[in-house]
Amino acid sequence: MKFLLLGGAGTMAKYVLEKVLADGAFEEVIVADYNGEAAEKVVAANIDSGTQLRAVQADVHDKKQLIELMNEVDVVGNCTGPYYLLLEPVMDAFFESNCKKYVDLCDDIEAIENVQTEENIQKAKELDKTIIIGLGGSPGVIPVEIMYGSSLMDDVEDVQLSMLLDELEEGGTAVWDHMFENFAGEVATYENGEVKVVDGLSDVIEYSFPEQVFGDVGTVKLYDLGHPEVFTLPQALPNIQNIKIKCAYYPPASMDFIVGLERVGLLNADEVEVDGQKIAPRNILLEKMKDTVMNPEFEGGFVKEVRDPKDYGTGTVIDVYGTKDGNKVHFQSAFQTDMGTVTGYPMAVGAKMLAEGKLTETGIMIPENAIPEAERKDFVDEVYQSIENAGHPCEKVASVTYGL
Predict the structure, then answer these.
(1) What local confidence, expressed as pLDDT, does residue 332 receive?
(2) What is the C-alpha to C-alpha distance for residues 248 and 257, in angstroms, rounded to an integer?
(3) E strand spans, 115-250
(4) Are 99 and 73 in contact (CB under 8 A)?
(5) Residues of the chain predicted below pLDDT 50
(6) In the chain, pLDDT over 90 holds for what percent of residues?
(7) Assign residue 110 a region: left if phi > 0, alpha if psi is -120 to 50, beta otherwise?
(8) Domains along the chain with CATH numbers
(9) pLDDT of residue 217
(10) Widest CA span of the chain, in angstroms?
(11) pTM above the 0.90 mark?
């Protein structure tokens, strides 16, 4: 079996590759990246993995090259971004390639909607292709666990994701830009069985994170986050009434920083004219952040030495509410770990399952439907157990309460 990892020199791809190599499910892995030198360094760093590795400089806009690479492998894993720009050209090439199996980390709502059309779903089925969109953390392992929780109930009514993202997480300006986009402007929520649009950062709740997993994080103010689950979960749970996705950067001062930036318009991605030059305020902000708060030498910046990685605030609490035999049920799962691992490891597990023939349904699928009901708990358990086995910080608990 051969695996093509597009965007293979990126931050999230590092964790996909780490898990793929640990599993040894593929005889060869092609690390393809627009930065060929970076791809070579990735291969050199993993030369003793026991898996044959090859670095390739590749531009996803070079359709001919992309098809040739895809024709060499059994599974394609796509970590290129931003997905709203790069998902469609990659999918276009995949449809014309001979490869039958594909998985990515896409969490861009617009990109998912543009690709997961009825026409493309039917086309994938006709070509006998299995395409899984968004098998990362969220979307990805989180909605898969929501589906597991739902299987313990007769009906699911409400879901809330309470999320923290530590300011010290990897990813640089790309991650900050993505989060600014999901916090600012109009944000989609799901209320009373339908999608509703609200103003970002306008609805604040206070949520108490469980001490068993999050230590002394305590009660934190959370804000609406625009994310695909408000569109994907109702596809799998058509009777669900409310989906709340609430999030904050951690520590709280980081979120206060973001709210202040939005108040003065610095999160705006639309261009404004200044002294005859057109530029987006957010682009200026991100450029300055590289030199200031994200620079370890900048006094008052995000200094990694202040906190150990095991004390980072990144994690999520899943609350699923429903009924069983006419009685109320509450399923809760909470985890704290690195963003990179909880994003990359699920995709790697999915790639392995594709290679092993465990995911055979064809078409374009979201994680909620791509992972069969019988495999959901094992999928979730493998993701978190593998993170812990690899030596990454990881705390995870789950419980279900009946007869509330």
Answers:
(1) 98
(2) 11
(3) 130-132, 155-166, 186-191, 194-199, 204-208, 219-224, 242-250
(4) yes
(5) none
(6) 83
(7) alpha
(8) 2-137+340-394 (3.40.50.720)
(9) 92
(10) 67
(11) yes
